[in-house]
Amino acid sequence: MKLPSASLLSAALVLAACDSKLATTGEAATSSTPAKAAVIDPAAGTSGTQATSTDEANAAPDPKTIPAGSTANAAAILARPQVPILCYHQIRDWTARDSKGAKDYIVPVAQFRAHIKMLADSGYHTVLPDQVYAYLTTGAKLPSKPIMLTFDDTDLDQFTIARPELDKYGYKAVYFVMTVSLGRPHYMTKAMVKQLSDEGNTIGSHTWDHHNVKKYQGKDWETQIDKPTKTLETITGKKINYFAYPFGLWNEQAFPELKKRGFVAAFSLAEKRDQNDPLFTIRRIIASGYWKPRTLHNSIVQSF
Ligand SMILES: [Zn+2]
Prior knowledge:
CATH topology: TIM Barrel
Helix content: 25-40%
Bound molecules: zinc ion
CATH class: Alpha Beta
Structural class: alpha/beta
Number of strands: 10
Order of helices and strands: HHHEEEHEHEHEHEHEHEEH
Number of domains: 1
Distance between the termini: 21 Å
């Protein structure tokens, strides 16, 4: 896969259109069970109250409490049906200045609302990383039609537009924060990130300033990973356990570095998972601004 040039990198930062490409097929060719991640939780329907995503999230164990010795091996993890995961960036109406390519990363407000409504109408339940981690490592049950919604790059509209929309349906999400942007114009503040966390969403790391993990050496690990993790833990008062690769780019060398810094899983984009370390290459697809709800639905079914 082509690495982004330095100029592309700055362009991506300006646009906050930061992931390297759209891919909707990924492992679809080798995956024979699309969207069958529906593992019915027998407890969910019997509690007498409607299970909300928050209840489910609360029910998921802290990943650090799952003993390493009792977790599934790579082959077993790869054999489980994948949970569909969507990746969003900006949620705002297109302007004349938006390039054709950028529009994959900019979902117009009405389109976004239609995406979320389609998911709700189709019976999808949002899940969070602790639930997916427990599912992948121990076979823990998930709600029927699970889906994870993730938002990268700290854009303000994720708080002002996406959050209230998800609230309508009791949906929770994952926000992968790039800490350099906190408090800047058009980006979320620390208080907003704290609020999202307090409201039961998961905050993950997306580095300090979006540099490609494959190029880190020496101090880069401290700048891009250690310090942002500390910042996010101070803001949320919680451990930061999950990471999303800028541009979706990763290499095997990154896995031990992330593990020794306390991450339990990392999220890439639509490319094939690493066969030895599937937890550090959990797949997501970018929900394009061009996609009508029907296209999104087809992509979900075909890609996972
Ligand atoms: Zn990004």
